[in-house]
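Hi, here's the filled form for the chain we discussed.

Project: internal
Contact: R.S.
Residues: 169
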Amino acid sequence: MRVEALLQFALAIAFIVLWVFMPTWLMSGANYSISLTPWGYVVRFFGETYVIPPPTVYAVWIFAIGAGLTPLVWRRSRYSLYLAALFSVLSLSMLMDTILFQQRYLQFHGYTIAPTPNGYIYVSLPTMPVLGLPTYVLLALVILSIFNMATRARWLGTRVIEDPIVAVE
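And the returned structure, exactly as it came back:
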C-alpha cells in the first residue's frame, strides 16, 4: 500500500468527518444564517430552522469518498489515480456549484430568500459569507490527488516491498 494513496484516503475521510461537524460554507447575519452541511442547506431564521436538500450536495461527499477509496481498492494501475483525480475535481466542482446555486437562486438584488412554513419570504439582511475548514481540506484533497496522478503516487520516495524474503535479501 502506497503512503501517498493512504494520505489521499485520510484527506477524504477528514473532509467527510469535518463536514459533519462544521459547514463548508456559511452565510450569517442578524437573526439569519444559512450553512451548507452534508444533508443540504440549513437555514435558521428568527429561531426557525429549515433544511433545503439540493441533490448536488450528496454528489460532493460521494465523489470525495470515491477519490479516497479508488487508489486503495484498485491498486495495480495508474488509471486509478486518474479516476481519483477526476472524482476529487468533480467533488470540488459540485461543492462550488451548490454554493453558486444559493448565490443565484436564494438571493435577489441584496435580498435573501428564506423559507417559511407556508412559502418563502424576501428579507433584506446584511450577510457575510465564509468558507469553512472542510472546503480547504477538500481543496487539499484535489491538489494531492492531482499531484499523485502526475507523479504516479511516487513522490515520497518510499517503497513498500510485498515479499518479506526480498526485503531480507
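Let me know if anything looks off before we file it.
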